[in-house]
Design a protein that fits this description.
about 425 residues, alpha+beta, two-stranded antiparallel sheet, globular, binds zinc ion
Amino acid sequence: MYVKIESERLRYLRFNQQKLRVEEYIHLRDAIITNADAAQIGNSVILPSSYIGSPRHMQEYVQDALTYVQEYGRPCLFITFTCNPKWSEITSLLLPGQNAIHRHDITARVFRQKLKSLINFITKLHVFGPTRCWMYSVEWQKRGLPHAHILVWLGDKIRPVEIDSIISAEIPDPSTDQMLFDIVTTNMIHGPCGNLNRSSPCMADEKCTKSFPKNFTNDTITNVDGYPTYRRRHPDNCGQSFVKNVNSVDIDIDNRWVVPYSPLLSKTFNAHINVEFCSSVKSIKYICKYVNKGSDMAVFRVENTNLNAPTVNKDDEITLYQIGRYVSSNEAVWRIFGFPIHERDPAVNHLAVHLENGQRVYFTSETAFDCAISPPKTTLTEFFELCNRADAFGAFTRTLLYSEVPRYFTWAATKKMDVSQARYAN
Ligand SMILES: [Zn+2]
């Protein structure tokens, strides 16, 4: 069903390319001067960034995430929140004989609510202290349930000595906290994999891709490159262990198999919630890309042996996007409900960067001529305008960097001028 909706949306874009024609202003002017047909100018088939999930859209999100990094430094916490099909909110709504996988409508709705409440928990109740900014993006495993990657920037950075009070990679003591013990042993144990279970999905080339089991460590050690080495004590040294039955074999599980978690979040949300402390600047780029990498792709191709068969046009962005698209049932339901796949706070303003007369122009065959006569205003051209003013506004603007302007001026997209400037002019 959703694939049908998506195809229709993409079809609309394909048949309305005229409305979306994008060309740098200077090229348009040259083209008009040499009397070219306006319909021929511009890229062939464009999948615009306003299309959610498209490569241009993802690219914009990566850029926006890096804006946060530029402004606030490295994120503090990297949280992966996975839908738990055993939540009572889900199971209580199932009809007799149904499983959570039969009711993606319920799992999608419940996960959306839980995700909202998790974000509020962190950003409104400030359980880890006041937050500066946050962003998340939702994705789906091949057959399965949704999970969200969340990045949080805190007002006060977490100091290395504070890590143990926020993140744990150890099995809790059941005699002091049975509830947490149950949640962690059900949700936060990796594998086991390796020699204990060669068919575990994390295995590649006889090795665990997530490098479990980890080593025992008595103290948390912050690592210059990447995640810290969390404290994982040996059973002989106050560490806990329990017996897990894997494929009817009892296996002793100790702290080496625990996925880092936050006791507070795990207990509140009873789900697989992996919490990592971001310690290095090096990991930022990777994490930002990871948060925004978009849905997994399964690309396969049937080669047509008929040489006359039409080939995919490299300029046809819509076909390129569609051939690699995989939509799971849950994602389909999510998108039909119109739930967001990304959210963030605060907003990031996109500022235009271009050469003189190099701004993008949106035109149709009818408007191409008019567009060529008067170059459209952009945030950049108006920034220069502001700086050129002889009054106090101009003097103030000249003290700002271009990227600082949105803090003091609001860009009114329809009027194409800074609102405060408009007010001043009146
Ligand atoms: Zn593994």
